C-alpha cells in the first residue's frame, strides 16, 4: 500500500511539475521542488489524510526515494516532448531559431544519452528526496512522541 501510494502520488506530482517546468521564470523553482520537496510533501499529504499511521525512518526514506525517482521520470516524460513541440511551433517566430532539443534529436546515440541523463538525474532526485523523507519522518516521530515499549528497549549488561 505504501509503495503504490508513493508511485501514484509521485507520478501525479511529476506530471504537474512537468507542466510547470514549461513556464520560463518559474522552472528553476519547480526544479528545486522536484529535487527536494516532493518526498516530504507526499509524506505530509499521507499523514494529513491518515493514509499511514506510525511512520518509521525507513518508511520515510523509502517513500521519499520512490516518489522522487518517479516524479522526475514523469516530469521528464511530460516536459521533453512538450518542450520540443513548443520549440517547433515558436522557433520560426524567433530570430535566433534555436531550440533546446535540437542537439538531442540528430542521432539515436543522442537519444540514448538523453535517456541515460534522465535516469541518472532521477537517481539523484531519489537520493535527495530520500533524505528529505527521512527528515520528515523524523519530525513526525518527534511530534507524535511515541513511547518506547519495554520489549523494545535494549539493556546492556557488563
Query: Gyration radius, to the nearest Å?
Result: 20 Å
Q: Number of helical segments?
A: 5
Largest sheet: none
Low-confidence stretches: none
Structural class by sheet pairing and helices: mainly alpha
Helix-strand topology string: HHHHH
Q: How many DSSP E strands?
A: 0
**First CA to last CA: what distance?**
43 Å
Overall 3D form: elongated
Please state roughly what percent of the residues sit in beta strands, choosing from under 5%, 5-15%, 15-25%, 25-35%, 35-45% or over 45%: under 5%
Whole-number mean pLDDT:
82
Overall number of domains: 1
Q: Considering DSSP H and I runs of 4 or more, what fraction of the residues is helical?
A: over 70%
Walk me through what this model shows.
The chain has one domain. The mean pLDDT is 82. It contains five helices and no strands. 28% of the residues are buried. The chain has 158 residues and is mainly α.
Write the SSE topology.
Blueprint: H1 2-20, H2 27-36, H3 38-48, H4 57-90, H5 108-144
Task: Identify the notable features of this structure and list them briefly.
158 residues; mainly alpha; 5 helices; 70% helix
Q: What is the gist of this entry?
A:
The chain has 158 residues and is mainly alpha-helical. It has five helices and no strands.
Amino acid at each position: 500500500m505504501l509503495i503504490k501510494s508513493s508511485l501514484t502520488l509521485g507520478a501525479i506530482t511529476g506530471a504537474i511539475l512537468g507542466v510547470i517546468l514549461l513556464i520560463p521564470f518559474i522552472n528553476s523553482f519547480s526544479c528545486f521542488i522536484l529535487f527536494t520537496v516532493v518526498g516530504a510533501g507526499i509524506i505530509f499529504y499521507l499523514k494529513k489524510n491518515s493514509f499511514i499511521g506510525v511512520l518509521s525512518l525507513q518508511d520515510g526514506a523509502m517513500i521519499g526515494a520512490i516518489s522522487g525517482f518517479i516524479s522526475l521520470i514523469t516530469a521528464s516524460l511530460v516536459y521533453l516532448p512538450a518542450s520540443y513541440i513548443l520549440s517547433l511551433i515558436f522557433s520560426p517566430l524567433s530570430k535566433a531559431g534555436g531550440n533546446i532539443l535540437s542537439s538531442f534529436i540528430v542521432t539515436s546515440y543522442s537519444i540514448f544519452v538523453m535517456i541515460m541523463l534522465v535516469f541518472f538525474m532521477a537517481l539523484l532526485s531519489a537520493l535527495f528526496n530520500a533524505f528529505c523523507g527521512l527528515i520528515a519522518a523524523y519530525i513526525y516521530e518527534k511530534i507524535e512522541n511515541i513511547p518506547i515499549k519495554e520489549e523494545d528497549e535494549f539493556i546492556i549488561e557488563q
